[in-house]
Each structure stands twice: as structure tokens, then as C-alpha cells.
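Risk register update: the risk of archive-format incompatibility is retired. Evidence:
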Amino acid sequence: MPVMLMCPAIMRYILKNRNLLLLFVTSGLFFFNEMLLMPTLPLYLSELGYSHLALGSVLGAFALGVLVMRPVAGLITDRKTRKLSLIIGLVVFIVAPPLYLLSNSFVHLLCVRFFHGTGITFFTTASPTLITDIAPPRHRGEILGHMSIASVFSMALGPMVGVTIFTRFGMPYLLAACSLVGLGGLLMILFIREPHRSPAEQTPITYKEAIFTRIVIVASVVLFIEAQIYGGFFTFLPLLLENVGDQKVGLFFMIASGTMIIGRFSIAHFADIYGRGPMFFYSFLIIIASVVVSAQIDSLTMLIAAALLYGLGSTICLPALTALIADTSDAAVRGRVYSFFYGAFDMGVISAGVSLGFLADLFGLRGMFMIAAGMGFAAALFFMLTIQPQVGHSVRWTLIGK
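Archived output:
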């Protein structure tokens, strides 16, 4: 009881709701599975003698698997059940890890990594769709924010645990741990009772009809730019920090993750109270500010400031945008809409290394971060001017909200 009383009201609601609680735990296990391999697979491939190009190709095959299967995942999520897509994603995450040990060629390894990426596609398409189905509309943004805390915890703890297992026991034990974690998630998901959808909610609607709406297209374009910034942080911040002394990228992400967790417990409900538009817009501006500060990092104080800003901005930014998509999409097509929406994120992350790397070669790392901030600001203006049909209404809706 004391633990329950310490939780925010919506978190207590999640803990008391059977389906949301099971999905929260399953999401944590699923992303923990992914994070165990995130820092260790490159180390393993390097030990096997793969070149940097080959290593990048193998890691890129994972993202390609995520992107290519998005439409299929969306279709199954809508035409069949949300639960089936979740199960497919978890089964892939159980089966894929042992296949790395059986890979005796580069091509085989690429295929395994591509297959592994499809698991992310199915799970991350179905999970927000099912949460949206279950959550009361007036608390949708807050619940989406709180539910994502599970993945933030996993991202904070998974890499450290993965490296520890890899260095102490070796890759076979780490891959076995990945499969066991995936199995735990599968057992959890089997007990979820998916809300009944009437036949009217399952009326066939084409992929084109589902996604070619103003809000979906504008939100997806902006998410693509946000994903470029996200990919830029993960790819180039370690290189930037190498040039400014002993600042550690791990400290940046630890502070950012901690800020995000605290923020989602305390202010996630703002998207429901003040509106999706203002909460996305202002939080995205905070993320842009973090990019500007990152370009100027020359001390521990600047590093902490950049991390705090990035964590604070990320607290509401994506949950508010996700809730906006949920508000304006029909339940019959929500899976396909989310598949397209998150596909924009996939493309942004995949292309960030190439596009921002090209800019870094031309203007240096600090110049690249400033250009990325400019791209983000342009995306924020694009959102403000186009998210609603009339410019004046769009500006008011973005800046003031309800």
C-alpha cells in the first residue's frame, strides 16, 4: 500500500488495470531484451574480425527489418488482433538470439539481424495501438507517457547488464539471457485480454486511406526530423565528447533517462490538460535547445545542462504526438497509422548517420549539431503552420491549445 500511495494517480490506475500492468511489464522485458544486445553485439562482431563497414551493415540490417515490415505489422494489427502482433514480436525476440551463434557467414548474419528487426516492428506497432484502445481518451496522453517509462528503465539498465554478462560469461550466455527475457514477456502477454472490437471497427480500409490525412503526414514529417536528432545524439555525441576531455556519453544518457522518468511521473498529464499541440511544440523546442547546448559542450556543467534539457523535452514530446495520432485515427486503421508514423521514426534514425555524417565532414561536429538544431526549428515551424487546415487556427492551436 505505501508504494501504491507514492505513485501518481495514473500510475496507480495502470497498476490496478490488468491489461495495462501486463503490457507495462512486457514492454519493459521486451526493450530490456533489445538493450542487452545494443552495446554488446558490436563488441562480439569485432572479436570475430568483422570490419567497421561490415559491422555497420549488420547493425543497419536490423533497422531495415524494422522499416520494411511496418506495413505488414500495421495490417495484421488492424485486420487480426493487437495481441497477435505482440506475440509475433516476442516470438521473434525469443528465436533470433540463438541464431547469431549459428551464423557461419556474413550473409547469414545479415539475414538474422534483419529477422531480429522485424520483432521490433510488430511489437512497437501493436503496443501503442493496444494502449490507445484501453486508455480513457481524457487520460490518453498521460497513460501513453507513463507506459513508456518501462522502455526508459530498460534503456537505462539494459546496456550495463548486457556488458556485464558478456564480459564475465561470454556471448552464448548473453544470448540465452535474451531469449529467456523474451520468453518471460511472451508468458505475460498471453494473459492480456484484448478489448472486443465490433465488426464495424474492422471494416477494411486501404493503407492509403488510413495514412493520407493532414495530421498523420505532418506529424510523421516532424517525427522524421526528431528521429534525425535522436540518431545524431547516439551516433555523434560520443565523438564530440572525445574531443572535450573526460566527459562521458554514458553520463549524458543516464541524466537524460533519469530526467525523463521523473518527468513522465510528474508532468505527463500536461498533454491531456493543456492540449497535444502546445505540449509537443514547447517540448520539441526544449529538445532543440539541448542540441544547441550540446554543440557548445566544453565542461561537465554544459554536459549536464544538455542532458537535462534533452530529458525534459523528451518527457512529453513523443507521447503528445502519439496521443494526437490516436485522437484523430479510427480504431479500425490505428495499427496501420502507427506503422506509418513509427516508420518515419525508423527512417529518420537510419538516415541520420549518413545525412548528419555528411554535414559533420563539411562543417565539423559542432557545426553539424547547430545545423541539426536549425532543422528541428524548421520542423517546429512547419508543424505550427500546417497541423490544422487554416494557418491562423493552426498557430493558435499549437501555441495555446484547447
